[in-house]
Hints:
This protein has a single domain, classed as Endonuclease/exonuclease/phosphatase (Deoxyribonuclease I, Chain A). The strands form three sheets. The chain has a six-stranded mixed sheet. A six-stranded mixed sheet has the order 5-6-7-8-11-9. It has a two-stranded antiparallel ribbon with strand order 10-13. The chain has six helices and 14 strands. The longest helix has 19 residues. By secondary structure, the protein is α+β, with helices and mostly antiparallel strands. Strand 7, helix 4 and strand 8 form a beta-alpha-beta unit.
Amino acid sequence: MKFISWNIDSLNAALTGSSPRAAMSRDVLEMISREQADFIALQETKLPAKGMNKKQAAALAEYFPEYECVWISSREPARKGYAGTMALYKKELEAKTDFPAILAPEPMDLEGRMITLELPEFFFNLVYTPNAGDGLKRLEERQVWDRKYAEYLKELDQKKPVISCGDYNVAHREIDLAHPESNRRSPGFTDEEREGFTNLLAGGFIDTFRHVHGDVEGVYSWWAQRVKTSKINNSGWRIDYFLVSDRIKSQIRRSEIMDSGPRQDHTPLLLEMDF
């Protein structure tokens, strides 16, 4: 089975925008569609609470005509047009959808950050983890989220194996970003956030990329848009992950970071499993 995860940073902009960046986003969507993955997870869709309009739905269907689509968006009192996640999966698959709330600090559970699909053999969870924010103003709440999310995944894992993916907004180790020495208190590389991710893995999960590739350096999943040369210079961060339950790690066939060309921000991830 094949899985793809991508923080798209606005589904509407990617599908209907006219900017050069929107064109690059559509190139990435085209690349993803050619993979014919069984599951596609999208984060930061930024859709309104009511979801896609007809134009957006038609544009998405052109890329993924053979897929069911489920989504959740940020809803009041949380910010409108913020965060949001979407899962696409092949129509022949039997999947039960859940939009879990994990009793995170308000309004995180209302920001459309998580979808879980239950399949006969496993759970597929996709997540868009809250950022600690400028000045680390949301770090305390982020730490609570990390604990609650780890507890949630562990509960799933007690029932059947878990495959989880998304933008976790943390570079776990120093080799997961280009400049660790100058980012010690930057959002996504604080000791607190890294410890939260360590705790998540300790609950019985494997970072599939590290499992396959070991301590390879210089491979990242995100490059800052605000710095025009960040991708050219490969000054990036690895903050997007595929995790699986430890007991199915032998079924991992591939775990790769896909090439999104010149487009900065996040790039998609690909995972192949034997099921």
